[in-house]
Write a structure and sequence with these properties.
With 205 residues, the chain is of the alpha/beta class. 53% of the residues lie in helices and 13% in strands. The protein is built from eight helices and five strands; from the N terminus they run βαβαβααββαααα. The chain has a five-stranded mixed sheet, sandwiched between helices. α6 runs antiparallel to α7 and α6 crosses α8. The protein starts with a strand and ends in a 9-residue tail after the last helix.
Length: 205
């Protein structure tokens, strides 16, 4: 049975050209006797971006098993990070779709390819644990050095600002205008107004 393949290519710069990548991937498909069902090409899209239109379209097609294999030239073309790449591979595996990466000679249909991705998954988990550990350590260190301070964004909401908000609102000035003048969010203004003029409590008959 001839396998169906989806080709994925990406270049970071708008002036870049994915044609070379696509030509190489077409040759791969021909050499393996695969039937190309679609080509997904992201041009001028950074690998750091979470959303990439053609990658998103490919993953959507993967959910309906439009193809049996995804072929790309390099790992860096596919995922924006090790953890993101593992998420993509896990999604493909959940649909029994294999990944072929030409330049690294990786094929998840083989034992060696599967072993390679197990290593990558371990590295991704190590990175997540390391980042989490550093964040927790940094917060604990900050708390020790600043026992009287609270974490969070500093607020410019002083009693004077509250008074100004109420005074401007009494002149029927718009919420957006007040927010801009006083440098606070619209929700903060609503909270101050409601605190000053609480709604009457409803009583059941």
């Amino acid at each position: 049975m001839t396998k169906r393949v989806g080709l994925y290519a990406r270049v970071s710069h708008a002036s870049g050209d994915c044609e070379r990548q696509i030509i190489e991937l077409r040759e791969v498909a021909e050499n393996h006797g695969w039937n190309i069902v679609d080509e997904y090409v992201d041009t001028g899209i950074s690998g750091a971006k979470k959303s990439r239109p053609e990658l998103d379209r490919m993953l959507k097609d993967a959910l309906s098993r439009k193809f049996d294999v995804v072929a790309t030239l390099e790992l860096s073309r596919l995922g924006r990070s090790v953890s993101n790449m593992c998420e993509i591979v896990d999604l493909l595996k959940s649909k029994n779709i294999h990944l072929f990466i030409k330049n690294q000679n990786v094929d998840t249909q083989t034992i060696v390819g599967e072993f390679f991705f197990n290593i990558i998954n371990s590295v991704a988990q190590y990175e997540r644990d390391l980042i989490r550990e550093r964040v927790v350590s940094g917060l604990e260190n900050w708390k020790r050095k600043n026992p009287d301070k609270k974490l969070g964004r500093p607020s410019n909401l002083t009693p004077e600002v509250e008074g100004k908000i109420l005074e401007m609102r009494s002149r029927n000035m718009g919420i957006n205008k007040i927010a801009k003048v006083c440098g606070v969010g619209s929700q903060t203004i609503y909270n101050i107004i409601n605190k000053e003029n609480p709604a009457p409590a409803s009583h059941n008959a």
